[in-house]
Amino acid sequence: MNRRDFVRTLGTGVAAVIFANSTPAVSGEKVPRIAVISLHAPALAAEVDGIREELKKLGYAEGKTIAIEAYFTNGDKQHTRDILRTLIDKQVDIIVPWTTATVQLSMEMTQSIPLVMIASDPVQAKLVNSLSRPGANVTGVSMSGPDLAGKRLELLRKLVPGIRKVAFLSFAPSPGAAAFIRESKAAADKIGIELVLRSINQPDELDDTLFSDLKTEGAQALVVQPFFSGHAEKLAQLGLSFGIPVISDYPTFPVAGALASLGVDLSKRVRRTAYFIDRILKGAKPADLPVEEPTEFELVVNVRAAKALGIIVPTTLLARADKVIE
């Protein structure tokens, strides 16, 4: 039989995706277990395929020499804790916590199982001592943090000439929300844009009421904290329905129908965790593996969304874009 993907529901908004292979390991051999866990929405579960593909390039055969599980809890911290407790009790070999809050929970619950994190600005969030010497049982990849806030607002000024008021949407339970808000506010003040701050506590608050309120307050565009990447399609659709351009960090957003993104390639960063998994399985200690910062940033513009919003994208901006969605 071919490899099968099993998806089961663990509770409201919580999905577990288990990648398995029908070919068992050689009798008596221990197959390393890797568990990816994230507070992101289940829509991002497909990104785990990238980790599996990179591990295959490194010589691993799923079900024979490695096993991968993935859990996406849609912002539910209690379910995340419950899953982490099960993984720790089963003594998985490596945990890949994705989002700053997920890393924090993982660090609270285990100081022995290696953690290969995917997080924004891990030094600022106090997840590691430094990027070069992370310390403890943590290493991994850093995503672009809030430091690009000013560049995204400048991008909006080019896309929407004369823009005066921009909304910023954050996820209140996220440890990184405060930094994103602070940097966005400072950048907006510097270039003379009024920032409308909106924070929600649950993903199900992404609805017509939210966008109607933003429209009433005069928001001419919306910048979204990257935590909502798993809800990119819904946000893009709401933005088009209410005539509010939506931009964020990752290409996930314009691919889903939002106006643009400026930041790292999410898929590439997630795939990069395979390098750390491989090194740790071969004996390296997380504390000795420097955390990798992104070195490439991409501008992606969705021209189709721009047309629907009545926006004419400058040719100079199209020439600069790394990807243009027609």
TrEMBL record:
Pfam families: ABC_sub_bind. Gene3D superfamilies: 3.40.50.2300. It comes from the Bacteria. It comes from Bradyrhizobium hipponense. InterPro entries: ABC_transpt-TYRBP-like (IPR007487), Peripla_BP_I (IPR028082). This is ABC transport system substrate-binding protein.
